[in-house]
Amino acid sequence: MNTTMAITLAGIVTIAVVGMSGRRPGRGEFGEWTVGKRRFSAFTTWFLQAGESFTTFSFLGLAGIAFGGGVAASFALCYLAINFVLQYFTAPRMRELGSAGGYLTQADFFADRFRSPLLGKVVAVVGAVFLLPYLQLQITGLGLIVQLATGSRTGGNLSMVLATVLTVAFVLWSGIRGIARVAYLKDALMIVGLVVLIAGVALSVHGGIGGLFETVRDSRPDLLTFHQEGYDATFFVTAVVVSGIGGGLGTMAHLWPPVLAAGSGRALRKNAVWLPLYQIALGIPVIVGFAGILLVKPGSPSNAVALTLAGQTLPGWLVGIVAVAAASAAMVPSAAIVVGISSLLSRNLLSVRNERAQLRTNHLCVVAAAGLALLLGLTRPGLLSDLLLLTYGGLTQLAPAIVMGLAKKVRLDAVPALLGILTGVGVLVWLTFAGVDVGTVDTGLIALVPNLVVTAVAQLVVRSRTLTPAPAEAN
Questions:
Q1: Which of the 8 DSSP states describes residue 380?
Q2: d(CA 215, CA 405)
Q3: How far apart are CA 5 and CA 272, in angstroms?
């Protein structure tokens, strides 16, 4: 075992140990496990919200997009800005409704606000199905990180298994408090890892970071425009809109527990103001991707750029530190996604009423979801690739109903909301699996149009029937 591998495995174990330390003695309630006592400070909520936004995609994917598509990678900076603006208004309202109604999940919101347990169950299924490939992405990404850092495919698979088992262990033991503990460590590791990586790149490129962009401007000016195949202006705009809607309106179930656990709406508004600072960190993988254009062999796998550069520019022990930082970017979101999936299934789909039994059922769902994602990651890593493209687009179909549900008075009935969601999801699946050519337009945005049309028409029909007077009885 080389130094890089040893440091990486030690780091993964350390992350899990920190997560295990978050458990409160004597706490065995499902509500405590999911949202704590709804008293998390702005400080803790900050790390929870930030920790779930910086994933393996942020570390590997953005560098890969910059490597192949140039400035199109900056779409992440744009959609996060939209997220935070929307969250300033939506997150405090979600927290207010959650506190008053005792919500523990996103589906609780739907079932209560629309007075429809059936709608809650449908949302639970949609949320769990579309989050599963996102969970697999984190687990598979972690294996890729270790494989690239150590040069060992076996080591990558071993790390996937170890990290998944340890993540499940600390999630079962500590719940959201364990995720919060690990989120503190993760952000510290990410800062160190990214600083080390950007320093290695700066020292390896003639003229430093400034010289890097001058060279790209002179040799590949097309990468500074939106003219790359698959990464044109249409891709940029539609990806920003769909991703902004997804994060800003809370369409992803794993984003709800940190909001519901916050101690006040003021804490959430404060975070929405200061979380954009996190975008500074997201700029580093983009810069690394541009450096790959000059330093990495053309035609190399785009997702391998960041770790390939680390291996070329840093000694083995520093590569290990970068790998641990990247692994933490997989483990924290994985933990949050597992909580999101399992709580939807145990509380809303299976509807276990007794809280102790609900917690036990939830734990079984945690193991099942993580185990399935790991199995697919090891045996069929490409099986959910198409479905992964649907994650944001599919969950965006919940957005219209969420907006209506956040209003003081809900003016949308459950049936129109349900029909709109099913229509949007159905159109999205058809566009994806039927191979319909829509260019670089995000299919989630296309599917949102019939979603809105069906919702509006169905609502008009429901209201017209409600307002139609009953026929007078004959004397």
A1: -
A2: 51
A3: 38
